[in-house]
Write a structure and sequence with these properties.
- The protein has helices at 10-21, 33-42, 64-68, 83-90, 115-122, 137-141, 155-165, 178-200, 205-226, 230-233, 236-245, 252-262, 273-287, 293-303, 308-316; strands at 3-6, 26-29, 73-76, 100-102, 128-132, 146-151, 170-175.
- By secondary structure, it is an alpha/beta fold.
- The protein has a 7-stranded mixed sheet with strand order 2-1-3-4-5-6-7, sandwiched between helices.
- β4, α5 (115-122) and β5 (128-132) form a beta-alpha-beta unit.
- α8 (178-200) runs antiparallel to α9 (205-226), α8 packs parallel to α11 (236-245) and α8 packs across α14.
- The protein is globular and about 60 Å long.
- The structure holds nicotinamide-adenine-dinucleotide (NAD) and SN-glycerol-3-phosphate.
- One of its GO terms (cellular component) is cytosol.
- Keywords: Cytoplasm, Lipid biosynthesis, Lipid metabolism, NAD, NADP, Nucleotide-binding, Oxidoreductase, Phospholipid biosynthesis, Phospholipid metabolism.
- The active site is at 188 (proton acceptor).
């Protein structure tokens, strides 16, 4: 099956490579003509994957129509807040029935919508799916092994997409819990910022572990309110990705938190999706009466209305309660 990968950043590049390595004819669309030339002529994407030599078979185009010719599966790999714009470009261009696999992780800030809701709204004839799990683009582009989950409401579609997108070093499990896979991926980014801030502020590894564990409780509570299944949140797209991003400065969200905790400048930092998702996640939790103090603290720290010292003070002085309450 022919796969079209839309989005020329780190993750789009890595997924275009895995699709090719999995044996699929693959087109790769990016909007930046200079980056297209760099991929096609020098086999690199210097803006997003500097220093990584790309497979010579990978070619890119900035012509969306050309990328979509014959496409039987589309991977949408722009940032979460840009998904609506990318979907709008597909209206009238993508063939009905072609699945759109969302590879971004986030919740739309302006509407509180899940990304699959945006696809359903903009492209009602194209079934949405989501690919999520522990996967740093640099690792995947280098051919290091990992496993992710591919979800769609239709279990058969999810299984077909998991077979299609698997490659020798890229193992895709399937799931019919689309909501669970989306929410796990979106919320882990907010918690990764919190984990980075804890380390940046010098609070130590014990605090980091306690925060990530209690953050996971919040992720499960918020996930449950969306109808996510607990076992999905315990899987690759929830716990798996949380472990990865809350424990490594290779994560851009963790690195953002690290800088926040250290009091460093945040100007010019790479994309950290949790920055856009924290506020809307905190709002959703508050609207639904869900206790989510870590998510709320991240939101206020990002807004500049709470210092990390005060956040720690607030979290530690909350009323004591049973752990499973
Ligand atoms: N990088 C990773 O390791 C990784 C892994 C898994 C998932 N993701 C997710 O994938 C998504 C994209 O991340 P990334 O790492 O590729 O980001 P990136 O910052 O490396 O690249 C973003 C790309 O999107 C393009 N873009 C931005 N707005 C656009 C628009 N309106 N239309 C078309 N293209 C647009 C940019 O030009 C750039 O090429 C994020 O949601 C991220 O959470 C990233
Ligand atoms: O670098 P981050 O924090 O965007 O994380 C990338 C992926 O989501 C890891 O699975």
């Amino acid at each position: 099956m022919k796969v079209a990968v839309l989005g020329g950043g780190a993750w789009g590049t890595a997924l275009a490579l895995t699709s090719l390595r999995g044996g699929n004819p693959t087109t790769f669309w990016m909007r930046d003509a200079d980056a297209v030339r760099a991929v096609n002529e020098r086999h690199e994407n210097p803006g997003y994957l500097p220093g990584i030599a790309l497979d010579a078979e990978l070619t890119a185009t900035d012509d969306l129509d050309a990328a979509l010719v014959g496409a039987e599966c589309v991977l949408a790999v722009a940032p979460a807040q840009a998904l609506r714009e990318v979907a709008s470009r597909l209206v009238g261009r993508i063939r009905p029935g072609v699945p759109v696999v969302i590879c971004a992780k986030g919740i739309e800030r302006s509407s509180g919508k899940r990304l699959s809701e945006i696809i359903r709204e903009m492209l009602p004839d194209n079934p949405p799916a989501a690919l999520s799990g522990p996967s740093f683009a640099t690792d995947v582009a280098r051919g290091l092994p990992t496993a992710v989950t591919v979800a769609a409401v239709d279990a058969e579609l999810a299984a077909m997409l998991a077979r299609l997108l698997s490659a020798p070093q890229f193992r895709c499990y399937s799931s019919d819990d689309l909501v669970g896979v989306e929410i796990g991926g979106a919320l882990k980014n907010v918690l990764a910022i919190a984990a980075g801030a804890v380390i940046g502020a010098g609070l130590g590894a014990s605090a980091q572990a306690a925060l990530v564990t209690r953050g996971f409780v919040e992720l499960r509570r918020i996930g449950a309110s969306f109808g996510a299944r607990p076992e999905t949140l315990m899987g690759l797209s929830g716990l798996g990705d949380l472990v990865l991003t809350c424990g490594s400065a290779q994560s851009r969200n963790f690195a953002y938190g690290l800088a926040l905790g250290r009091g460093d400048s945040l100007v010019g930092m790479k994309l950290a999706e949790g920055v856009a998702t924290a506020g809307i996640a905190a709002t959703i939790a508050a609207q639904r009466g869900i206790r989510a103090p870590i998510t709320d603290a991240v939101d206020r720290m990002l807004a500049g209305t709470l210092t990390i010292d005060r956040a720690v003070g607030e979290l530690l002085s909350r009323p004591l309660r049973a752990e499973d309450d």
